[in-house]
Amino acid sequence: DAGTGIRNFPYLSVEFLEDKEGVLGIDQVASPDMDSRFGQPPKGIFNFSFTRSALWFRFTVAADAKASGDSGIPRVWILDPGWNVYGTFELFIPKPTAKGEWQTYSAGYLKSPSWGQDRRHFQLPAWIDAPTTCYIRVTGLRAIVMSPHVMTIDKALQVNGYKMLGTGIILGFFCTMILGHLAIFAYTRNTKFKWFIIANISFTIYII
Questions:
Q1: Which of 32, 33, 22, 25 is nearest to 55 (CA)?
Q2: Which of 17, 23, 53, 159 has a CA positioned 20 to 30 A from the CA of residue 173?
Q3: pTM (predicted TM-score)
Q4: How far apart are alpha carbons 128 and 76 in whole angstroms?
């Protein structure tokens, strides 16, 4: 959206491919032979629940003069994977100077993640000044719900601030509940409150 500096994932040209064995590489997935295997997700929703498959997503980042004020997209675009927990997240962008070579960004439980295990944002290369087809490979630790989006760096900072604020409020609530139940348990010695404490600690760990 030119006014907000954000492009939600569904508004890009997106298709997905399921690799049940998890053995396909980027060169195989990007080959013309695989075109027919890409399609829309079930019911058009990017919610894949729990799966052992590797999921590939193909999307096109298109130039947008209205968003940048000139002939191409802004110099700094940020791809935010979304507020989800992935096992691995890999982004592949074709290099314009060498056909068949890829600029790769990765995060998660990989042998050598380029951005660390907990990377939440990826800065797209400055040379993306024309429609470019990119690929994402995802595996999951929890249910996979894809909700990434491409945005300007200012919008990324704003959205991340809201996310951190929301997470802080939720964690603060559960920490208050833990301390409150701990105080009641210490005063009354009622064992029921021990289970409330354990439950709240479990929720807090899950959120973190």
A1: 22
A2: 159
A3: 0.65
A4: 10
